[in-house]
Amino acid sequence: MEELNFKDVLTIIWRKKISIIVIITISIIIGSVYTFKYTTPRYKSSASVILGKVSSASNGEVLESEKDITMSDLNLNSSLIDTYSELVRSRSIMESVSQRLNHTISVDSLMESVSVARVGSSDLLQVTATNNDPVIAKNIVTEVVDVFSEYVKEIYKIENVYIIDQPSIEYVPYNINHVRDIAISILMGLIISILYVYIYSFVDNTVKSSKDIEELLNVKTLINIPFDKNIFVNYDEISEDIVEMITKFKNTTGMIIETDGGYLEFETDGRTKILGNGEFYKALDSCLKSMNKNSYFWSASMMLEDEWTEEPKEMKFRVSNLDVSNRGTKVERIFVFSHSKIKEFKNNKTLKIFMQSNINTMYVDYDEILEKEPELLEIIGNGWDGIDLDTLIVDAPADQEGNVRGYLSINKREIKRAYDCYLRLKNYAKDLKEVLK
Q1: Going by DSSP bridges, is the β-strand pair 406-409/391-395 parallel, antiparallel, or unpaired?
Q2: What is the DSSP string of 140-178?
């Protein structure tokens, strides 16, 4: 079993902080519901009796000769106090108490609710009764003490039981303490959370770092790529670069592999730098490969001229579009061009391919938009491709050397602005197949 150091434990706790908070919160809720809703309040009442001067008078009065307590009285009381403790809770006394209470409480219930305790090493006895009703609890104690005193007179022919504290009605339940119960709930939540973290740390065998790989496989990590939502990495390119380097230097005894992995970092405004053709199409291809049947690809292309070329990267992009639509992804493309270009674009190979696929191809008249909502043309620019509402791939004006192609954006405001523009363009859209037939 792998040993965990203190830092590892803190890391696991931090990683599982949400689960820990949830466990403690659930524990508090359960404890609160229990203490406020399901705990039945119980009340208790107590009376204190003391064994004092022994009186043998039949009327209970202390004779003149018996006013002073003697050592024999003390010895007798000490010897009787344990017996009296048992006598108070005897069944015969409880039957008499039940009879006095008109049998509203059974003998067994009385025996469970009445307790007797000697106070320290003194000759003082404390008789306590509990009940759901504070008045009944007080009545039980009163009757128990009275019946007990009568039994002592009857059995021992003496009178040495004196009431020190009369029973009273206590309206505060002794068994309910909301603060204590909630504190216990928090403690139980912490204990369960600790057990959860402890068990998780030994059951979870997933690899989380390069250090885990080195310890598990006893090898050295060559490449470490940190995950960051603001960094775009093309893992297919990493694989290709690694394979190329390994096969190129397969006869060497050691090597250093360097790859950028299509590394693209988003700036503070949520955009990448302006990309050249190579970087742009690699990023675009990676985005398309990540899409599935639940994804949504929406695009607007500004076609002032027949700009589609037979360049390999351009051809690969078209194939990727078809592949995405064949995987069940919802793909929609709007092509914006002037009505006067319809005849020219009828023989456009790319448009023909798109129209024969599962891609929903639409046409928007450039001149109509220029007349009615010219601001949309400014938003479209050279065109863009949207992936769900998470990523926008924006075309940039090409330079003479062809080194500028576009950029990626995860800027929510920019994506929303483009998508709102796209929805407005659809109001003017026509089926491209019907326009070019």
Answers
A1: antiparallel
A2: HHHHHHHHHHHHHHHHHS-EEEEEEE------S-SS--H
